[in-house]
Amino acid sequence: MKTLKLGTRGSALALKQAEMTEAALAVHFPDLKVERVIIKTTGDRRTDVALNEVAKAEGIWDKGVFIKELEVALENKEIDVAVHSLKDLPTVLENQFQLRSVLERGAMADVWIGKIPWSEVRKGSRVGTSSVRRARQLQFLKPGVKIVDLRGNVPTRVEKAAMDADYDGIILAEAGLARLGYATEGMFEINRHPVFVECLAERNFYPAAGQGTVGLEIRRGDDEVGKIVDALNDTATWSQITAEREFLRLLGAGCSTPIGVWCTITGEHLEMGARVFPEKPGSPRKSKASGVVPLEVAQQLFENLK
Predict the structure, then answer these.
(1) Which of 80, 88, 110, 168 is labelled catalytic?
(2) What is the pTM of this model?
(3) Is residue 255 domain-resident?
(4) Is residue 281 domain-resident?
(5) 165-195 pLDDT, tens digit each
């Protein structure tokens, strides 16, 4: 292959994840020429409505709003690999596409960034998020909080947490913050505005399936590209995300469904927990499971829901 074309969104985090992919490729294939192709997606373009309303506004029901244009470019052979934040990728892909490999997983947890400490978030506190999973867990763990829609890339959201009076704080993924060089514990200042930064324990505030993972999607049947990205695959991460995504599939859930999942791996042994929230506000169903075969652990987690 003369040139491998990587497709990515243009946000700071997406570009960092493309850079991580390029660095991994350089280790395994030092002579391979890699071209980065930046693609603007529907989710990037439609910042005028809440994220969970973008699909409805655009008439998109079969694709994640942050991946549609990347998949179009894949199908049209404008790119060879689409680099995704895995939690944005739909649970079931169309037949012509394949999630082929994943980079080593970063942190799974969510992080609180606020003008007040997490312990002081209570009824009436205004918390920014565009995630229905985070919103439902906030309402479950901190009854009476007010959810305020939050859009924009990571630097924009961090600035809003520090400087926008509409928010007492926000919640973001630890991995994304770390990849962009932000502190994920303690206190720091944004334009001289101090903020409290606290990691939320995964078994208390459940992450999204696939959170912290960079996924590489290719055209199914493209063996030449497949062999290249196979070299980048992290087997421990693959076991985790296989179980997490299978659990979503069994539920008939997607990347915007209010479900939290944590998953740890020791050797080949997986341990998982889940919270599944109803469509309307209410208490979640919960489950735990463990084992060594990812698909079987996911099935057990599904059957143990109560």
Answers:
(1) 88
(2) 0.90
(3) yes
(4) yes
(5) 999 999 999 999 999 999 999 998 988 999 9
